[in-house]
Amino acid sequence: MLIGRQPVPVEAETLLEKIMRFTPASIALALALATVSSAGIGQKPDAQIEPLSVAWLEKGEAAQKAGNLQGANDAYETALAIDPRNRKAFSALGEVARVQGLTGKSIRFYREALLLDPTDLDALAGQGEAMVDKGAIEKAKENLARMKNICRASCGEIGQLAAAIEKGGAAPQLTAKNVAPPQSAVSIPVAEKP
């Protein structure tokens, strides 16, 4: 016999307890679904690139063929300002930077193109060639392996990168072991103490 307290029946949870129990899980699920669905909305296929951006890309290609690298660079940057999803403009900027001898900048532009489409063979080949120019033969071989996984048939980009790796692989690799510390050409006399 209980005095002063009535036994609490083990009934279903109250509505408040259910809300408190399932709210964190439902919020996490809603955030995950919102993130996944918004990622798909943000991706534009090449057919949906702004036409004005494509026109500036074509102007850049014409300037590059004419040998006007600065004009081509400006046109490609304008194409990207109009539509930052234009991966061909990133690849073209990478090519211009590579021709100018700016291999690090070139690799970064190709990386931006690959962030938009990781299967872009032109960007993979261009980045691989820039890596060969920089002396990163192993990284270029990784790009070549990725390209072979993407394109199982005969792709010209694969042969192009393979030839660049073979040509670049014959050159001596610069490593920290091969670099001698700089020698001072000026000797400074040390005064002796009396």
State the shape: extended
**Segments where pLDDT lies below 50 for 5+ residues?**
none
| CATH level-4 homologous superfamily of the domain at 48-171 | Tetratricopeptide repeat domain
Tell me the strand percentage band: under 5%
Please state the oligomeric state of the protein chains shown: single chain
Helix segment count? 8
Determine the CATH topology of the domain at 48-171.
Serine Threonine Protein Phosphatase 5, Tetratricopeptide repeat
**Name given to the CATH architecture of the domain at 48-171:** Alpha Horseshoe
**Count of extended strands:** 0
Indicate the CATH class of the domain at 48-171: Mainly Alpha
- Report the end-to-end length measured between terminal Cα atoms: 108 Å
**Overall mean confidence score, pLDDT:** 80
Structural category: mainly alpha
Rg, rounded, reads: 30 Å
Could you give the order of the helices and strands? HHHHHHHH
The main pleated sheet reads as: none
Portion in helices: 55-70%
